[in-house]
Amino acid sequence: MPTKKRSSHNLPSCPYPTGKLLLIGGHEDKGQSPEPADESALNENFAPETILQRLADEVGKRGPLVVVPTASGEPRGSAHDYQRVFQKLHGPAIEVLDIRTRAEANDEANLKLLDQAGGVLFTGGDQLRLTALLGGTALQQRLRARYAHDALIIAGTSAGATAMSTPMIYQGRDDAGFLKGEIHITTGLELLHDVAVDTHFIARGRMVRMAQILATNPACIGLGLEEDTAVLVTEGRELEVLGSGMAVILDARACSSTNIHEIAPNTPFTMRGIQLHLLASGERYTLPTAPRLYA
User: Fold this and answer.
1) 226 vs 264: CA distance, rounded Å
2) Residue-wise over 273-282: b if at least 16 C-beta within 10 A, else e?
3) pTM of the shown model
4) Buried (b) or exposed (e) across 37-71, using 16+ Cβ within 10 A?
5) C-alpha separations of 103 from 27, 95, 134 in Å
6) Which of 111, 229, 272, 293 could form an S-S bond across to 243 if both were Cys, CB 3.0 to 4.6 Å?
7) Which residues neighbour 44 within 8 Å (Cβ) at sequence distance 6 or greater?
8) Three-state secondary structure along the chain?
9) pLDDT tens for residues 39-49?
10) Long-range contacts for 109-116 (Cβ within 8 Å, ≥24 apart)?
11) CB-based burial, 213-233: b 16+ in 10 Å, e otherwise
12) Pairing of strands 184-186, 192-193
């Protein structure tokens, strides 16, 4: 007889989650990347489809990969892209959970599909749309419970990755951040705590806007992900870097000073003593954030 999937409801708290997170910096290779005009610009270490192949491997045969295109302005097209690529990879079956209202995020049929999932993938788009529609719903609660107690992998790319963390960056131009008040944060989906995640990190020059987030609370860790780059998070804090780019860690816990609490809005801020780590594919890093109980 097949093994019955255990229920994740009303289970006791555990010191770290059983599930995994795959945070992707956006523009992950889907097997259709054009050749660069300048051959000298080609990254010889580029491994086509590495990230999505790893996601397929992690899901395995535990159930379908449920694609949630809620953040996207074109959810059907976004979901179709992933259906095509996982078919090419001979990966898991794909189901689409096209949530467009909070009522749909509380619908029992949609929750049942989530219960059957071997993995979940949040597409890119607008992370504020994602949290506004899913935050506080039964779907978010079920997702957190399964992440805590089941061997479920939850992936997100671009906005889908940014929404995993608490705090969550949701507004701020790429060329902004050095003036107090230019960056806005809110609560994300609460899967990764005390870590601010930003994507397209190097391509869009987002280092300074991350630094402002850390200046407001240096207990947080900044995780910047370049395009076609990801981190696989196990036990809520062990990171493995994947893909062709770089993961950037900003650690301000030991910063010597900041003036962001003293200056007026729209004024440049000062922060001294930020620690920086640049991590390429294959590197590992343990987040120094305090462990939490996952209920």
Assistant:
1) 32
2) ebeeeebebe
3) 0.88
4) eeeeeeeeeeeebbbbbbbbebbeebbbbbbbbbb
5) 31, 19, 10
6) 229
7) none
8) CCCCCCCCCCCCCECCCCCEEEEECCCCCCCCCCCCCCHHHCCCCCCCCHHHHHHHHHHCCCCCEEEECCCCCCHHHHHHHHHHHHHHCCCCCEEECCCCCCCHHHCHHHHHHHHHCCEEEECCCCHHHHHHHHCCCHHHHHHHHHHHHCCCEEEEECHHHHCCEECEEEECCCCCCCECCCCEEECCCCCEECEEEEECCCCCCCHHHHHHHHHHCCCCEEEEECCCEEEEEECCCEEEEEECCEEEEEECCCCCEECCCCCCCCCECCEECCEEEEEECCCEEECCCCCCCEC
9) 333 333 334 47
10) 110/139, 111/138, 111/139, 111/142, 113/66, 114/66, 114/139, 114/142, 114/143, 114/146, 115/5, 115/142, 115/146, 116/5, 116/63, 116/64
11) bbbbebebbbbbbbbbbbbbb
12) unpaired
Name the one residue in this structure whose structure tokens are 């689409």: 96
Residue with tokens 């990764």: 192
CB 179 within 8 A of CB 268: yes
* 94-127 confidence digits (pLDDT tens): 999 999 999 999 999 999 999 999 999 999 999 9
Q: For residue 217, give every residue at least 6 positions away whose Cβ sits within 8 Å of its Cβ, in sequence order, or none.
A: 167
**How far apart are alpha carbons 110 and 98 in whole angstroms?**
9
| Average confidence (pLDDT) over 158-186 | 88
Phi, psi of 125 (to 5 degrees): 140, -120
